[in-house]
Amino acid sequence: MTGHYCDLSNSDVFLTIGSNNVECHPVSAKWVQKAHDKGATWIVVDPRFTRTAACADIYSPIRAGTDIAFFGGMAKYILDNDLWQKEYVRNYTNAAYLLDPGFDFDVKTGMFSGWNEQTKSYEFSTWGYQVDETIPADASPTGAFAWTTEDGVPEFTPPGNKVPKKDMSLEDPQCIFQIFKKHYERYDLDTVSAVCGISVETLELVYKTFGSTGAPDKAGTIMYALGQTQHHYGVQNTRAMGVIQLLLGNIGLAGGGLNALRGEPNVQGSTDMGLLVHNTPGYLAWPTVAKYPNLRTWLDLETSSGGFYTNKPKLFISQLKEWFGSNATLQNDYGYDWLPKLGSDNDVTTMSTFELMNTGFIKGYFLWGQNPAQSTANTKFAREAMSKLDWMVAIDIVETETASFWRAPDLDPATIDTEVFLLPAALPFEKAGTVVNSGRWLQWRYKAVEPFDQAKPDLEICDLLWKEIVKLYKDEGGANPEPILNIKWDYDIDGKIDPRAVAQALNGYVIEGKKLLTTFGDLKADGSTASAMWIYAGFYANNDAPLDPSEQKVGARGREDKGGLALFQQWSWAWPLNRRVLYNRASADVDGKPWDSSRSLVNWTGDAWDNNDVADFVASRVVDGAPTPVAPNNNAFFMNWDQIGRLMIHSLDMPVPEHYEPFESPTDNALNGRENSPMIRFADKESVKKGTREEYPIAVTTYSVVEHWQSGSQTRHCPALVEAMPHQFVEVPEKLAEERGIKNGDLCRVFNNRGSIHVHAFVTPRLHTLLINGKEVHQIGLPHHWGWASMYSTGDVVNDLAPNVGDPGSYIPEYKAFLVDIEKA
Amino acid sequence: MAKLAFYFDSSRCSACKGCQAACKTWNSLPSPLGQDENPFTGSYQSPLDLNGDTRLLISFSEVAGGSKGVEWSFGRRSCFHCTNAGCVQVCPSGALAHDEETGMVRVTEDKCIGCQYCKYSCPFNVPRHYGYNDKINKCTSCLDRVSHDRQPACVKTCQSETLMFGSRDELLAKANERVAKLQEQGFERAAVYGGNELGGLGLIVVAHHGIESLSLPANPRISGMVNLLDILKPLAGLGAAAVLAGLGVSFLTGIGYERHKLRYDEETHDIIDDETNEVLAHFDFDEEE
Lengths: 825, 289
Description:
- The structure holds two protein chains of two kinds.
- By secondary structure, chain A is α/β, with parallel strands linked by helices.
- Chain A has 21 helices and 33 strands.
- In chain A, strand 31 (769-772) and strand 32 form a beta hairpin.
- Chain B has helices spanning 18-26, 86-90, 117-121, 143-146, 153-157, 168-184, 225-237, 240-245, 248-256, and strands at residues 4-9, 57-64, 70-77, 96-98, 105-107, 128-129, 136-137, 163-167, 191-193, 203-207, 262-265, 270-273, 279-282.
- The longest helix of chain B is centred in the middle third of the chain and has 17 residues, at 168-184.
- Chain B starts with a strand and ends in a 7-residue tail after the last strand.
- The A-B interface holds A 22-23, 26-27, 29-30, 33, 49, 51-56, 58-59, 61, 705-707, 718-727, 729, 744-745, 760, 762, 764-766, 790-794 and B 11-12, 14-18, 20-21, 24-25, 30-44, 46-47, 54, 62-64, 67-74, 159-161.
């Protein structure tokens, strides 16, 4: 979330789209209701009439997978009806920037300029700005790169800063504002209505209502989740929402923002911690062989020419120092070469993992709190791939479908030689550590009870494994010993691995004397500081009580709400630096005056900043040894090199979000001449088995229900939750039920080329038969929580049906929109 | 009149069933443990009804129509803690009684003799009995928690402030205010339930789609059976054995198994099978007795 849960209480209009927030994030309901009580309007757009829709004021159905058409139409409506926040867009976005004259989009082919047929990806040269001049990096004593000359800082070439050409009147036909406007001219109400299956009246109502938050003193928020991301253009869905919020001036405001709701399995914390293949902890780039063969190329390519990431080398070198300790020196590039590098040919993202198992490249598989035999897309293929493994180690609190993949109903255990180890893990309440919520708030969670029987906390399992591996390497040697033997692993307290020691390492410290740091601003690129996780710097920084979490910011329990905007600055700690609303500079105009004085996050008084929240911009600078306020400027998005919000981008798979149809779609693309996004991942894999709309005419979306959690491993082992939602089901619109002779409660078969499952039918007016491009399309819904591994509640695996194709940026599978057929069993 | 009360606001309820699970957990009420033992109910409502191990459930009712295309109403099904409580009136053993401090209908399980009269006296069809010993099992308002200044388990777990527990007068005032506001917002059928029904209920309901959407009876009345059962009270009070030996035998065995299909005719004093119209039992008694 750019904001946080409590901040929802400040909104004027809510748009829940691609999220079922009261079911999947029940705590959000509390704060939305507070704003609702004050008169806020709540819109839900969803393929199904959900429990969230039941609570909202306005509901619109939508065909799954058409969000970009929906938001493109909204962008057009906002511009046509003059609802955009003009001063905000002009000053805080790249609307005024002139785009390269070679930029083009061909509606007939559905392709942007810059396509490279060899690499099957875009080159970005025509998506960039026209540049006035390039200012060389300033390493003089007062320059942004002065620190690069200090002893111990590795040599690299900081990039020069490009100064883009602008037209502040926004009238130049080559400025982004004009090109953006032209791009969405095709997204008129009638076209969007036909693509999305939403009536023109409902579209207008939703657009008008949400567009009203373009007024400077109004704040609108978008709540989204996997309904937006789980498409082969999921990243562009998210971009589309970001663009809308920039047009309306909603990013950075209390009650505004673009709020990804993340969930109970500490997903915010796990991505922070570098769980994703391409990240180290704190969202830094994981080295690859091709792009970053050595430290110098990493520093050259990753260091930003402007904004905060001019400091990136400090973050990365401090991380290397935490990992390799005194073994990391300037002479050996701080151990960079010891880091395992990702190869360019072996994609090891989740879906690709199963392709590599299938070909025999991956022979062993560690699973930590994950259940892909139930949860990945095209699970049937994933299970068959797993059956080719030599060994698997599953670490979980129960025996999951994956830990027991060999007894899946469609596999024959007698033919599978995989050796499976199941290590029992402790439950959340049986271990201490941190947990991070969707709003980036960290809390220390204390152990309540001892783990059951032989179960151990994950940290302890990891520690035992690591120490044993190191011992084996020392005693017997092995392949690639340097990374293993050079690692600093000193997280024991009183002879036992301890999360408090890990917290100190994450927070960061001056190595000499191990003084904990209160801000990542104090990290250095000269090897004198260490921090495994720069974004958490300050969360555990009380040097007077380093072993007492309750005396740290992460243990804060103050209930005061300074400013009355539900920021609760003293309750827990939000990364980064306890900042509650990201991009809060944009909550005030260029002169630093809040757009709405009743929503003041930051405020320039004429000679100083008077802020309720921690500034997300350069608010002060040390001049002659003293912190001195920095007068307001328009650098409201200083994590970008250009320090502004981007209506159009020069990276990823599209410069501006364009509608394409789901991989398996019930209709042709009515907006351009191309069916799928040209950069769709994995579509060419044999395992995918694409189905046509002639064979499988029914559109389907998958989702969660509040009673169960994800693959159900936890919740299907809780009898009270099983009783509350005991069986898998398919939700069927009344018209389809009538056509196929399906009655409420009937057992049905739902199937496509990848799988076939049996589920009970809920026949309901909450799902819809939509009119899409002139034809009726039935849309059904399947919750995905069931599998065979439970004492209490079992069912077929819904993800057997989902296609294993994905987004080229995030590699997320397209769970949310594909095709099936249904019949009474 | 109850001094404390529950408050349930259907316009805020997201039907997360947290209350349903918390009730089971706090009160150590079991759920079926067999693999796939729970039936498919054909609804998000599960179990479909209260039972010997379920004191509270969230009910679902969906109807096509309204500005959003569907009206999906979520209700709370549990004891209403009536002021004129049929169950209390009929209970021969004192197992059911109004708690003096709070006014809620409390349960003293040790006193329950399993006669199940309460079951037939309740206009809301609430009291159920444990399967293994036939003792009464219904919402106690978590008096064990309340007496230690804690909220009932269901209220404690509620995220959206749908459920509250506190001074009945204050909650009733809050409900009236809320309904006025909902009506302003266009919920024309919004109504408060529980203000005056049966002398005032200990569960005040704000029904934003109207009380019919939550299947609440418009004018709940204590079953005519209560008068009848009242006569049995002195007998039952002597203990279960006395009941079995007395008048009640044929009556109780007759209705014990067929509850949903029976009705009582106040004029003829007949217990009638609703499906077959067969008179299962007839009572001769003098009003003055």
